[in-house]
Amino acid sequence: MSKAKLTQAVSLFSTIDQTNSSPVKKAKKAKSPKSDFSSSKDLLSCYQMTEQNKHITHEFQSFGCHLAEVLADKRHTSLYIKLAKTVPRGLLERALSFVIDSAADSKAKLFMWKLGQLQKSEKIKQSTETKQDCGT
Fold it and tell me: What per-residue confidence (pLDDT) applies to 117?
């Protein structure tokens, strides 16, 4: 008898043997699995770029342009960029949310009015806090 007939494969796992009925397996070349990743070109093609402004390099400039677009006042974009740089972001966002909720004709005027009101209230709040700190 030949050696091949004398040696038989012993089953260690019954579930594997049921799925693979042949005792001798041929070696297969490992195929590289298809990756679930897509190229950056495909990802960027999904987004529609409306306009590219290469002059915006800081976040506050982007927020100022966003304010100008929302308030429909692109003529004064530089003013909104200056405000985004110097005025605390919380005040700007509160004034913007106030304007968005309103049905005003001139949202830019309403925004500037509300921003002035908020700045006055902040100054009053800070002055009362400093007076209380000095009095104790």
Answer: 96
